[in-house]
Amino acid sequence: MTSIEKTLFDKLLQRKIDGNYRSLKPGSNKIDFCSNDYLGLASNKDLFELIDKNIKAGKIKNGAGGSRLLSGNSQYAEELEEYLSSIFNSEKSLFFNSGYTANLAILSAIPQKGDTIFYDQLIHASLREGGRLSFAEQFSFKHNDLNDLESKLKRTKGNKFIVAESVYSMDGDFGNLEGLLQLCEKYNSYLIWDEAHSTGIWGEKGNGIACSKNLQEKILARIYTFGKGMGVHGAIIAGSEILINYLINYARPFIYTTAPPLHNLISVKSSFEFLINNIFLQNKISEKIKFFKNMVSNNFIDIKNRLIPSHSPIQIITIGGNQRTRFVSEKLQNEGFDVRPVLSPTVKTNSERLRVCLHVFNTDKEIKEMLTVLNNCLIEDAI
Questions:
Q1: What angle do CA 321, 322, 327 make, to 5 degrees?
Q2: pLDDT of residue 194
Q3: Partners of residue 152 on adjacent β-strands
Q4: At residue 205, does pLDDT exceed 80?
Q5: Which of 135, 342, 347, 352 is the most buried (most CB within 10 A)?
Q6: Residues 266 and 129 occupy one common structural domain
Q7: Position 28 confidence tier, pLDDT thresholds 50, 70, 90
Q8: Is there a cis peptide before residue 345, judged by omega within 30 degrees of 0?
């Protein structure tokens, strides 16, 4: 073992001691309460057949062969971006291989030296990493705390960028879009808005929270990802023509990345076509959320006392402590319910929690049985 491997080994050992060691596991055949497949599209057979049909109808290459600026562009890619722009009510949009890459791109390319980025402390790691790649200063503000944000906006100069999300994956709550835009107007700031966990679930044709409120024109850049509610893969940044042309010229994660293959692009368009023809899925996931919340409120007081208020498919039950949270998760797993723990350092120490994700395919019976097992576990072990 080399000296650097010894250093790495010791760090991994410490993670095991702290109870937050990560490892890859095979797919589970348990009842899914953990994936981001809220609308059930990732496993939908009808969508699979539609994608297969659309792929067979075209001339498909196995790979793009290069970046979009080299050999990886296509007429289909540009037509898809126009199609997505029409859905997300933007002048233009730009396709990225993933939401992570899109977030790196927007925040590393737009803010410059002398500018300041203000980000909600619960934003996704990719947004933080994007900010670190820029030459701008970065400051976090307390989660959904507009007063804390305003106090920091007052003390800075240069271009100000506020970074927030429509739905936060660690608490399941919504960002305060209207309040953030008011501060943007008051302090001449620009909002970068991540719709990862709202794409597909809200808005006409699945175009998210901002469009459902008709506030998209006031936002500098919106990021939509397709690996969650849409059940496929990829992402776009939606905004003005100037913004998108700038990203094509300056966003390194776009310029130097091999373009997605054509069948990836076809999958994205097919997914939106399918959702538009099955828009009732939005009402169905809403019904599942209401059923879960009513069940907890009326029947499971021990869970209710630990539940973070949320109107999204992400429902959070705080436990506290890595070992205890993992223990409860394992009990649920043993009973056939795939509920995963969220441990520190992903969340703050003593705020470790179970992250229950609801889906259109979860039956009411399954939800009730899962809650019963969880509630009994909390009572029996006096956690």
A1: 100
A2: 98
A3: none
A4: yes
A5: 352
A6: yes
A7: confident
A8: yes
Angle (CA) 288-293-294 rounded to 5° is: 95
Tokens (6 digits) for 66 = 């290069």
Q: Which of 179-188, 243-252, 352-361, 373-382 has the lowest mean pLDDT?
A: 373-382
Helices and strands, number each (H, E), in the chain: 15, 13
252 and 158 together in one domain:
yes
Neighbour order of strands in the sheet with 314-318: 307-308, 314-318, 353-357, 340-342
Report which of 235, 231, 213 is spatially closest to residue 222, judged by C-alpha positions: 235
Q: Are residues 62 and 37 in the same domain?
A: no
Tell me the backbone φ, ψ of residue 88, rounded to 5 degrees: -95, 10
- pTM for this model (two decimals): 0.94
CA 282 to chain centre: 17
Range of the domain at 163: 58-277
Higher pLDDT residue, 61 or 119?
Answer: 119
Query: How far is Cα 328 from Cα 357, in angstroms, rounded to an integer?
Result: 16
Predicted pLDDT at 249: 98
- The H or E element spanning position 106 is helix 99-109
* Strand blocks (E) in 21-148: 31-32, 92-96, 116-120, 137-141
Q: What whole-number distance in Å separates Cα of residue 350 and Cα of residue 217?
A: 40
CA distance 126 to 227: 15
One DSSP character per residue, 243-267 reads HHHHHHHH-HHHHTSBPPPHHHHHH
Cα end-to-end distance, the chain, whole Å: 41
Same domain, 24 and 147: no
Distances (CA, A) of 20 to 122, 169, 256, 324, 349: 19, 19, 34, 12, 11
